[in-house]
Amino acid sequence: MSNYKGAKELEVAKQLMHGGLYSAIKSMGQILNSPISLQILPEENLVFKPSNQESHIVKTVLKGEIIGTCYLILTEHEVNIINSTGLPKSVMLDNSENGKAIRTGFITEIDNMISAAVVTELANSLNILLYGDVPSQMKLPNSVVSEYLESEAEVYDTMIHFNAFMQCEKLQIKPLFIWMFQSQLMEKIKEILNPI
Amino acid sequence: MKKVLVVDDSVYMRTLVREALSSGNYEIVGEAHDGQTAIEMALELKPDFITLDNVLPDMLGLEVLSILKEEQPQLKILMVSAVGQQTIKNKGSQLGASGYIVKPFSALQLIKAADEITQANQPSLSS
Which residue, of A89, B49, B51, B61, is most buried by count of CB atoms within 10 Å of its CB? Predict the structure, then answer.
């Protein structure tokens, strides 16, 4: 990110991401039938407070003309609240494999819809082809999430990232949404700002 | 009753689509979680229309659309996707998709989209 500090491309990238994230909270609010607010974080403020809980991480790899990944990070408690808000009671009480798959799939689908909102904003604004691959979900102890994200940033050769909390006061949840991009995002913006 | 094949990698979405369309007088004849299964089931079950997710584990919905429209040009396909970008909608339209609905949607919105697709090009009773 520091390579682009003060650059016009970074300001445009921030504006596009803000637009996408606002569409994302609208989609999330629609699914949970509750208003969601957005709290965008400066990158240096990304701190995971140690707790006994495990974190659920839903990861989506971007495909197309920009390479990147996004991560929706929720506590076990938040996953339970979201599931009990969005799914019928019969599904919550269903201990069969199908019931478990629906509950897991619900969180993954929320991630799919909110990440698609950001992808759509980027793709339409930059006139590129971009989509998120099928999301994957994992559980990690909260204490190792920062370490995991740092290793992901290295694996994906991340140039720039954006972090935001998606807060729902009504449901008392505050999942974290993280986006990492390689250099193509800034290059595409540069092309638009400086046409040949 | 119109016969429907539901294609989505998410069991949650398949359940949602199945329940919505079943309440709208559609018969769900099959569900597929990936592109290859979708193609095989579509050729075997010959549904009236398909709800097709665009991102599947083995291929894009657009590729499934292209293959199926070549095999069964009359087959109606409703693209169901979280991605609302114009380039993908245009590509779907070029390949012969009958409609496109962006997630999240309500049961009523899905039934309306399905009704529009299945009733299109049918002779009007009043004419």
Answer: B51
